[in-house]
Design goal:
Shape: globular
Oligomer: single chain
Number of strands: 13
Radius of gyration: 19 Å
Bound molecules: flavin mononucleotide
Strand content: 15-25%
CATH superfamily: Aldolase class I
Helix content: 25-40%
């Protein structure tokens, strides 16, 4: 199943293997892409990944996880990002980008969040956002979405996971506001409304969520699916299911540990989902799709160490996928 194509709207994915967003912290302090990004994403495209979702890219300099995040907060960023898109396309992948504001987890002098509650560790106490701060961030997401379209991305993923700003609003553990935003869905909807007003209808709009927090009082697949259902009329096409990241708890991870969460979100929302987590075996991924736990599978860390996983191992599942022509003499 992993190597069967899938079509969402007008976009054809040659297979269901996804490289999930993974921050490389390798941009310069102005957030510009460089040769590393071209090589990094180009290599995974050459390795046969159907959909590459570029790392969390900051919509605002104050929403960066680190000063070396990629940025999309100014029109000057578009040229470098377009180069990444062209490299992904030229080597056969569908090009996605994740856009993010890191909220209270931004390593900046004055982080902001829904409430003045710290993440802990050496993270600073965030300032509780005013309504103006909220509207400014919503506008930053909108501008970022417009630039992502200009750069040529096919898939826009809004980062609503891992304890960054949107998720901070969604989790009762980090949102204790008293105003209209005490229900985090309201903020998510404003972001989605702004983004979908500029993101072309024919392109794919995705949302990454943490669907479980492994601690009492945190979000659950049910509550997260309710939030998704509240915004899905805004043109949401795909959900990328992850977990955790908003509180310091230890997660017992094992191969496929988030697939059950993906299945629950898929069933409760009726939307296609990308599932994954510690998956290195192609058979496990294929079975997850076959048993309808998810529609696509992400392979994160394994692709950092083995960009050619798919072209080298598809044949183990009986599939012949296109091997890069110049490399054929090295084929196993
Ligand atoms: C180096 C690194 C950077 C990551 N950066 C992001 C990110 O930018 N956005 C995001 O949603 N998840 C991020 N993640 C999480 C991955 O997308 C993925 O969900 C996680 O690694 C689990 O999948 P895996 O076990 O296949 O690696 C990152 C993970 C790693 C290892």
């Amino acid at each position: 199943m992993l190597f069967n194509p899938i079509k969402i709207k007008e976009t054809e994915f040659k297979n269901r293997a996804v490289m999930p967003p993974m921050c490389m912290y390798s941009a310069n302090e102005l957030g510009f892409a460089n040769d590393f990004h071209m090589i990094h994403y180009g290599t995974r495209a050459l390795g046969g990944v159907g959909l590459i979702i570029q790392e969390a890219t900051a919509v605002d300099p104050d929403g960066r996880i680190t000063v070396n995040d990629l940025g999309i907060w100014s029109d000057e960023h578009v040229k470098g990002l377009k180069h990444i898109v062209d490299v992904m396309h030229a080597n056969g992948s569908v090009a996605g980008i994740q856009i993010n504001h890191a909220g209270r987890k931004a390593k900046v002098d004055h982080p902001i969040g829904p409430s003045a509650i710290t993440y802990g560790g050496d993270y600073k106490m965030p300032k509780e956002m005013t309504v103006k701060d909220i509207k400014d961030v919503v506008k930053a997401f909108k501008e970022a979405a417009r630039r992502a379209d200009e750069a040529g991305y096919d898939v826009l993923e809004i980062h609503g996971a891992h304890g960054y700003l949107i998720f901070e609003f969604l989790s009762p553990l980090s949102n204790q506001r008293k105003d209209q935003y005490k229900d985090g869905k309201v903020f998510l909807r404003e972001v989605m409304e702004a983004v979908s007003s500029v993101w072309p209808k024919e392109k794919i709009l995705a949302l990454r969520v943490s669907s479980y927090e492994y601690i009492e009082g945190g979000v659950t697949p049910e509550s997260i699916s309710e939030a998704i259902n509240y915004v899905k009329d805004l043109g949401l096409d795909l959900i990328d299911v992850s977990s955790g990241g908003n509180v310091l708890v230890k997660i017992k991870a094992f191969p496929g540990y988030q697939l059950d969460l993906a299945k629950q979100v898929k069933e409760l929302t009726g939307l296609p989902v990308i599932g994954g987590g510690l998956i290195t075996e192609l058979t496990l991924a294929s079975n997850a799709i076959g048993s309808k736990q998810c529609d696509m599978v992400y392979f994160g860390r394994v692709l950092l160490r083995d960009p050619y996983l798919f072209i080298n191992h598809a044949s183990d599942l009986g599939y012949e996928i296109k091997y890069p022509e110049p490399y054929i003499r090295g084929k196993k």
